[in-house]
Design brief:
Layout: E1 2-8, E2 17-22, E3 26-31, H1 40-52, E4 62-67, E5 74-80, H2 83-96, H3 98-101, H4 107-132, H5 137-151, E6 159-169, E7 172-181, E8 184-191, E9 194-201, E10 207-211, E11 219-223, E12 228-232, H6 237-256, H7 275-291, E13 299-309, E14 314-323, E15 326-331, E16 338-342, E17 346-351, E18 362-366, E19 371-375, H8 380-397, H9 426-430, H10 451-454, H11 463-484, H12 494-502, H13 509-517, H14 519-525, H15 529-537, H16 543-551, H17 565-581, H18 591-601, H19 604-618, H20 628-644, H21 646-651, H22 656-661, H23 663-668, H24 676-689, H25 691-704, H26 706-710, H27 715-727, E20 729-730, E21 755-756, H28 757-768, H29 773-803, H30 811-831, H31 847-850, E22 852-853, H32 855-865, H33 874-885, E23 893-894, H34 895-907, H35 910-919, H36 958-971, H37 973-977, E24 983-984, H38 985-998, H39 1005-1032, E25 1080-1081, H40 1083-1090, H41 1094-1101, H42 1106-1126
Parallel strand pairs: 20-21
Antiparallel strand pairs: 1-5, 2-3, 3-4, 4-5, 6-7, 6-12, 7-8, 8-9, 10-11, 11-12, 13-14, 13-19, 14-15, 15-16, 17-18, 18-19, 22-23, 24-25
Helix pairs in contact: 4-5, 6-29, 12-24, 13-19, 14-19, 15-17, 16-17, 17-18, 17-19, 18-19, 20-29, 24-25, 25-28, 30-32, 30-42, 32-33, 32-42, 38-39, 39-40, 39-41
């Protein structure tokens, strides 16, 4: 394969390569092998190296080098694993390149031509690989070439797909092509000689929606912070919009939510994302949401088939979904039948005899002695082989008895902290499984019974009637178990949904929660996991444990179970163990309420795995620091209100108040705002139906209260109406003792009519049962983009509020600077190459520390924003400035440090600006290769701000002004000079060079050069005077020739300014010249000297318009970064 040209050292002592062919420009070499004659020792060494190195590190056995005749520099341009492959490359070079090189006269042109040609071949190979994955490779290859030519992005910007469409500007459409790449939405049009290019980063997209205008009924609208863009005339608008949503969602989450978002393995490298990968991701997310499976589950097979359903003696049409750990079936008719079969429960997978009645049948047997018969399966042989291999792996790799592998916990180095990193996938669970071969007595005793068994409260007056209803429910459930099964792999039909909606009996609640959530599979797969986790986590102190302790007694405080040490201790163990298991979530408020209810109906270990199922599978991203999942679902709920309750949406214009009111509904599953005995029925329904149940019940509650809500005049009144309604939802069939609620509103209104919970659940299904998982997932994807962008806006506002009081920028200018700063970070994420830039963004940190940039990124902003031109010194001074700003030496700076620097450059007085320039030419900013310098940190802005001059006072007596300045400096010498060390001669020369470079192309260039020449001469004389004074040790040895014209300005006390200042060790850096040992000048001497030249004062006091700089930076930031990345 072709390689990016890289220099290699040909003359090496080991002679690892043997030349096979060569000509004037190219050499074909073979790696020496053990059997080669003439190099036994080197051959043995090479053979040993190749045997030891793994497959990824081994060197290809053949390579082609390029060399310019007469040069000792070689470039590797191709390598090959076989003789045939390398010979193909060699023949291509001889036929297409060798004769062309002879026409060049300049060797640099030859080198550039060869490098460019090889890079072109690499790009073509890449295009071919990407194109081969598309339905029409040739057309995609052509589109890829056009995309690269038209937008000139770096190679890391990969095209995903493209469509023909129109882009609207007002009412005028413009026909062209839309290109969807991994980081950008691009549009290109060329009509009637006018070229239009549009580039929208996905990270800037705030909203994607399908809408219409007066002319077109189907439009895709892309909204950013500043503009809206409409696109139409798509051949398949459904596919286009879905892919745009997926690309925007993946990119925004990858760049803005790397705290919680984990990419699928196929999307780990953004440069390899294809249309097929995105479609596969969409199927995976639907599959996991539909069957509520772990995030790590990856769908491998989807086939149409029929399932024999014994309860109605017929074949049910549907789809068979197979992943790495599950076999799932869903009927075509929604809610008719679906089945979840964990592969751990599967005993056999066999083919049956193919008959006309049972074509292509497969039998799946499970441990509960139930058999599932699937028929009419295409490619049955391959499917059975795949399942058999997976079962073999599970059985072979599954630890049994005392054979479990020993895996230690990964614990933080601080004994008081939580684990550094514990992943929540199934594979990661295995890394936490205890070594069962060494049976240890647990240090903490666990509850072996559900708390309700110890603290079971029933209504004394109506005990007979309610217990009679419980008996009826029990009989119904046991009859159902006989026919449909009593394991995870039971047949789930509309009949079981109706049973759940009636309320699960008290004695079966914990068992069925485990089955419906599939927590029972994790429980069985990880024996002793929880006990071991409790022993590891209890006693450790961290922020999560402190929050847990505060909330323990707030968890169902009215229930006797949590008025006792038994319940509180169990709750503490479960919450602490989970925070230790998953530090990304740790502990979040409302988890205590949910866990309390789980402990009432499940054993302690079972409650832990139920909590895992809720937090990691059923309500993903709900329980983290920013509760993004809950915020997304509030936005989804708001959209559902508009769709299903238009009357309410019309009267209540701001639906966000209703959505925010319902936040506790989602976080606590109604447990905190509804009587416990009623909320338990919703929890039952949730474990069976998932998140759509909460949406349905929430819509039903608003539907019942629509008339009263429409008459509300403020949000507080609406909150009272909803709270009163929720407090009066009853469950007359529950045997539990009713517990008074906290939200009781005593007013003059009539008593609220009580609503039975079973009626509310039934109405929610009848009115809003058409809501399905696929619809919810699509809305989540769409609203997640908006939620994350709103959080980014909040971060920006808080950042600006913190920074604004300390700087002189306008709010608009400060906002533009933040956008430039953030975009520089994002550009490094796009095209940085190693992905490390994404590590510089951490949403969990304080606002000022969330985004930081490195020296390379700062250098780009320095070029765009610096008010002065620096010429050839730009890159050097950018690095020095970065070292000055990076006070904590972590090689990163934040937004506040950048703005403080710019504030000094644009709004500082002459003293502050010169002080900054001075610091750029002394350590630690100025570093010479021969210096041995210990860094010296100083404050960023001078405390001395003299006000002895005004730039607009042209008649000022500068000699008198200088005298006053020197007198003041003498008085405050100790304070003022304490911050800055002296500048030696080498550093002073660099300082002068910088000043000369700053004055180029200035209108007063000649006057400035003359002024700086005068000042430089003066300062050189001052330095020599100080040097001679220090060398002689007395003022008496000062020769008359050392005097200067300005001596008539100085008073006897002024000589103190030129005395040596004690700044600590003086051997920090060696002399530049033989006579430089004691030559030095101070900042005060430089400042005083510059003040003697009015042209210099005017230059540094001149106001530079920041607005024009910002406009130029915004317009050129992208192109500058593209040029740097390409070259």
């Amino acid at each position: 394969m072709w390689l990016k040209p890289e220099e290699v050292l040909l003359k090496n002592a080991l002679k690892l390569w043997v030349t096979e062919k060569s000509n004037s420009y190219f050499i074909l070499q073979r790696r020496r092998r053990q059997g080669d004659s003439g190099g036994k020792l080197s051959g043995l060494l090479v053979g040993a190296l190749d045997a030891v190195l793994d497959s990824n590190a081994r060197v290809a056995p053949f390579r082609i080098l390029y060399q310019m005749p007469g040069s000792q520099v070689y470039w590797a341009i191709a390598c090959g694993a076989t003789v045939e492959e390398i010979h193909l490359h060699w023949e291509w070079l001889e036929q297409n390149l060798l004769h062309t090189l002879t026409v060049f006269d300049n060797k640099d042109d030859v080198i550039s031509f060869v490098h460019g040609k090889v890079k072109g071949l690499i790009a073509e190979e890449t295009r071919s690989k990407l194109a081969e994955q598309e339905e029409d490779p040739e057309k995609f290859r052509e589109a890829l070439v056009k995309f690269e030519t038209r937008f000139n992005f770096p190679d890391l910007e990969k095209l995903v797909t493209y469509y023909s469409c129109c882009c609207w500007k007002g009412r005028v459409p413009r026909q062209g092509w839309i290109y969807l790449s991994i980081n950008h939405l691009c549009f290109y049009s060329f009509l009637l000689g006018k070229e239009v290019k549009l580039i929208i980063p996905w990270a800037d997209v705030k909203k994607l929606e399908r809408t219409s205008n007066t002319l077109i009924t189907e439009i895709i609208r892309v909204t950013t912070q500043s503009k809206e863009r409409d696109f139409s005339m798509f051949l398949n608008i459904d596919e286009t919009f879905r892919l745009m949503e997926l690309l925007a969602d993946v990119t925004v989450r990858r760049l803005l939510d790397n705290e919680a978002f984990e990419l699928d393995p196929s999307l780990q490298n953004p440069t390899q994302i294809t249309k097929k990968d995105l479609e596969a991701r969409m199927r995976n997310e639907y599959f996991r949401a539909c069957f509520r499976l772990p995030h790590a589950e990856k769908l491998t097979v989807i086939v149409d088939c029929f399932l024999w359903t014994p309860y109605d003696q017929c074949q049910t049409a549907g789809k068979l979904y197979i992943s790495e750990n599950y076999i799932c079936f869903a009927s075509k008719k929604e809610c008719s039948c679906y089945v979840i079969i964990p592969l751990q429960e599967v005993v056999t997978v066999e083919k049956m005899e193919d008959t006309s009645l049972l074509p292509n049948p497969i039998i799946v047997g499970v441990k509960s002695k139930r058999v599932f018969q699937f028929t009419e399966i295409k490619n049955r042989e391959h499917l059975v082989q795949q399942l058999s291999r997976r079962l073999h792996v599970l059985k072979g790799g599954k630890p049994s008895g005392h054979g479990e592998p020993r895996v230690e916990y990964k614990v933080s180095s601080e004994s008081s902290g939580c684990p550094e990193e514990i992943c929540t996938t199934n594979a990661a669970l295995d890394t936490l499984v205890n070594n069962s071969s060494i049976k240890k007595e647990p240090r903490h005793s666990l509850n072996s019974e559900a708390l309700m068994a110890l603290f079971h409260l029933t209504e004394s007056g109506s005990a007979n009637s309610t217990m009679g209803m419980e008996d009826v429910k029990n009989r119904l459930w046991y009859d159902h178990f006989e026919e449909y099964g009593r394991t995870v792999s039971m047949f789930r039909t509309d009949k079981i949904r109706k049973l759940v909606a009636m309320g699960i009996p008290e004695c079966l609640r914990g068992e069925l929660w485990l089955l419906f959530s599939d927590a029972v599979t994790d429980l069985a797969a990880h024996p002793d996991y929880y006990a071991n986790l409790v022993d590891e986590s209890m006693g450790r102190c961290c922020m999560a444990t402190e929050e847990i302790e505060r909330d323990l007694h707030r968890s169902l405080p009215e229930h006797p179970a949590f008025q006792s040490d038994t319940g509180i201790a169990a709750l503490r163990r479960v919450l602490t163990a989970y925070a230790y298991r998953n530090p990304k979530i740790g502990y979040c408020q409302s988890m205590n309420i949910l866990t309390s209810v789980l402990l009432l109906y499940a054993k302690e270990e079972e409650a832990f795995w139920l909590l895992v199922a809720v937090c990691e599978k059923m309500l993903p991203d709900y329980f983290n620091r920013r509760v993004i999942g809950a915020q997304v679902d509030q936005a989804v709920f708001e959209e559902l209100i508009k769709e299903h309750l238009p009357e309410l949406a019309e009267h209540v214009t701001d639906l966000s108040c209703l959505a925010s009111t319902s936040l506790s509904w989602f976080l606590t599953l109604f447990l905190s705002i509804m009587p416990l005995e009623s909320a338990l029925n919703i929890v039952d329904y949730f474990f069976y139906g998932g998140i759509k149940v909460i949406f349905q019940v929430g819509l039903a509650i608003l539907d019942v209260n629509t008339p009263e809500l429409c008459s509300c005049t403020d949000d507080g009144q609406a909150l009272i109406i909803l709270s009163r309604f929720l407090d009066h939802i009853t469950n007359k069939e529950s045997p539990l003792l009713q517990i008074a609620q906290q939200h009781v509103f005593n007013d003059d209104k009539e008593p609220v009519q009580q609503v039975e919970i079973s009626d509310l659940i039934r109405d929610s299904y009848e009115k809003f049962g058409d809501l399905h998982v696929g619809q919810i997932e699509q809305m989540r994807c769409r609203h997640r983009i908006r939620v994350l962008q709103n959080l980014e806006d909040t971060t920006k506002q808080n950042m600006l509020r913190v920074v604004a009081p300390d700087v002189s920028f306008s709010s608009e200018g400060l906002g533009d600077l933040y956008d430039l700063f953030k975009r520089e970070h994002l550009l490094s994420c796009y095209w940085g190459g190693n992905g490390s830039a994404e590590l510089h963004h951490d949403p969990s940190l304080p606002y000022l520390e969330q985004y930081r940039i490195n020296s390379f990124q700062f250098g780009n902003l320095f070029c765009l924003l610096s008010p002065w031109t620096w010429g050839a010194h730009t890159d050097i001074l950018a690095q020095r400035t970065f070292r000055v700003l990076d006070e904590n030496e972590d090689s990163l700076i934040d937004f506040k440090e950048l703005v403080n620097w710019l504030d000094t450059m644009y709004y500082g007085d002459i003293s502050e600006k010169l002080r900054l320039l001075y610091r750029l030419h002394i350590p630690p900013a100025y570093i010479n290769d021969t210096d041995n310098i210990s860094p010296l940190r100083t404050t960023f802005v001078s405390n001395v701000q003299p006000d002895y001059f005004k730039s607009n006072c042209k008649a000022t007596d500068y000699q008198h002004q200088l005298k006053k300045m020197l007198e003041d400096l003498v008085k405050r010498k100790k304070e003022a000079t304490k911050d800055l060390p002296l500048m030696n001669q080498r550093e002073f020369i660099q300082f002068c060079k910088t000043l000369y470079s700053m004055f180029r192309e200035d209108p007063e260039e000649n006057h400035l050069y003359q002024a700086i020449a005068t000042v430089t001469t003066l300062l050189l004389q001052i330095g020599e005077v100080g040097q001679r004074i220090r060398n002689s040790g007395s003022m008496s040895e000062l020769p008359p020739s050392a005097s200067f014209k300005e001596t008539d300005v100085l008073t006897p006390t002024d000589d103190d300014v030129f005395e040596e200042v004690d700044i600590g060790p003086k051997n920090n850096y060696p002399p530049s010249q033989p006579g430089e040992d004691n030559w030095s000048v101070s900042f005060e001497q430089i400042l005083a000297s510059l003040l003697t030249e009015q042209s210099l004062v005017n230059f540094f006091e001149r106001s530079v318009p920041i607005k024009s700089k910002l406009l130029h930076a915004v317009a050129n930031q992208y192109q500058q970064r593209i040029n740097l990345t390409i070259h």
